[in-house]
Amino acid sequence: MGNEMQFGRTRQDACGLAGYMALYAATGDEGHQRLAERMLQNAVTGEEMHPAWARLLFADVDKWKETIEQVAQRELPAPARLEEAFDTLPFRMAYEMKLNRMAWVNRVAEDFRSLHQRLFDEKSGLHCAAEGEAYCAESTGWFLMALVDCIDICDQQLYEHWRCLVDIFRTTLRGMLRSGKVEGAELQLAYCILKAVRMGLIDSERYLARGLELAQAEHHGLDVGIPYMLAAEKALAGRCGA
Amino acid sequence: MKMKVLFCSPRSVTVKLADGGLYATQKAYRLTLNGKDAGAADTVITSLYGLWPDTKYCLQAWDGEEMLGEAEFRTEEESFTMNVRQFGALGDGVHDDTAAIQAAITCCPKKGRVLIPAGEYRVKPLFLKSHIRLELQQGATLQLERDRSLFPILPGMIQSTDEESDFNLGTWEGNPLDMFGSLFTGVDVKDVVIYGQGIADGMAPDSDWWVTPRIKRGAWRPRLLYLCRCENVTVQGITFRNSPAWNLHPYFSNDLKFLNISVQAPANSPNTDGFDPESCKGILVAGAHFSLGDDCIAIKAGKLYMGATYATPCEDIEIVNCLMEDGHGGVTVGSEMAGGVKYVRVKDCLMRNTDRGLRVKTRRGRGKNGVIDDIVFDHVEMEQVGTPFVVNCLYYCDPDGHTEYVQSLEKQPVDDRTPYVGSVTFRQVNATGVSCAGYFLGLPEQPIHQVTMEQVNIACDPDAKPMQPAMADCVPKCVRKGIVASDVESMTLKNVQITGYEGERIEARNVEITEE
Prior knowledge:
The complex is a heterodimer. Chain A is mainly α.
């Protein structure tokens, strides 16, 4: 590759890296590991790095500690839109778990709770994408991904916080599926459902078939990130006999 | 001498020989049953076994030729006996006898007895059934399986089919988490007696339960007895030892008796609390002997989620004529107490060589339902107990235990996460071999309400070793210290003698002291 492009500035970059890392972890295929390492070698510095990308650096905390701390020292605003939860909250949760002695896990939980309380409509069972805006399937899909990834990172022994995220996840997922308004978020939903079933958060009998059905949707122009993350979950689901 | 029958089953009886002793009687007595020799008694709470069902007995206690006390009782009826040997149990210490013993339990009719005669029985977790008596005879040992891959798991929370509610089975340190089945597990059972002179052995030294104990491998560690939502259960006489984790753990259970039990674990074993009632009501612990690696008795009520969601205190607990040895605390309240702990009476007990006597531990984050109140120690002797009285509201437990939120000495907002300590009373307590007389650490925003000491004698040991009396970041090791108190609304001292201390008799900050 001549002029190597730099990675790590966008949410899409983060999903691409996450996809390669997840597929390597799930299948052992070293081709995915090589691609992931190449992206990491060509990443921007901590000052410019997207927090969703930085979150993936916790896979090797010792190697990336300095970069992680650079990102952590930045003012990461509390999310105001649903999709912004995916941008910052998994990074902050990972930081609390791995480097900050879990000091402020409650703040991460509080940011999720605040978003949920402000944007959720009990009657419809759906969230607005942001204050004053309408429901958006893709935004809600990012919100669900943020939740399921944070639930995965959070120590279950901090049960009140862990459970808060699980309750919001279940409510959000149920509302979205019952409404049937999933166009544009099918792969995100499939990823979340398969991961949540694998983690025992939701009933496989009720949700797994729906998740596999959603996984058949077209990519709709998404890059390899989410499809690869979904492929990893499918591989893990097969291994678990789900 | 007064003799009182505390409990009677078809085949056993527990009596109290009230001769003024605490755990041991002041002298040994000869016993007779219906005129026949029934051995000797040297403990205030004494049990006899091998009785016959539905039979009237007269028990007498003798000192030489002088009859000092008597009690009459009738044993309960018994329907059938399920001898586990008839169900195929071999008791040879090699063969897995789980299926045979479980079959005997499952098939046992109401008011029947499951009999485990002398032998060594290798078992995986056993599940109790209502309305049975299980006898572990002298010479019988249940040996818990060592391989965790063979254990069933009790899931922490299972969501209902309509997704509206939860079903809680497993628990670990105050949270509803997956745990392995325990040697004896009871779920929603009532009217059960487990008794005898046999042994329930967790075999932990021969397994990996104590290796990396704070890491969840498969599920959290099992106990020796776990009672989940049970009622009217009595455990009499059994020796529990080498548990993988806490020994006896009744959970959301009521009307329980633990009589003449013995609980043992090596002093360096991890988290082997002796008896941990959690969100229970109506418990009697009488004549128990504890010698183990953590708190002897720890009265609990869950962490924040359970305390806020179920708000079920642990209350109406009576602990009498017990001997607590070698543990971190004699009687501890907390640190999981988010549902509240109320009305605890510790009477006529002996604590020997424990780090602390009464130990109350809580912290910010336990929640507003975490109310500790009406705890009374009455006539308790403490020998070589490092710090007889500790109330610590800055206890550094849990992953976030050392954070600024938990450890700050500055006033924090009183909110839904702030616990409360009401009244704690110590009456007729003698403590010798002490390192620090007492440590009371309240929250500046929510002080301890009332500490009362009446007829208390504390003698510091000139050769005492420094110890950290309360586990909080602001508490250093100390030795030959008087009482240290901060953020206590009212401390009332009547006839309190402290000897052998260095420095101030009482170091107080934000404490209103009244002394007579």
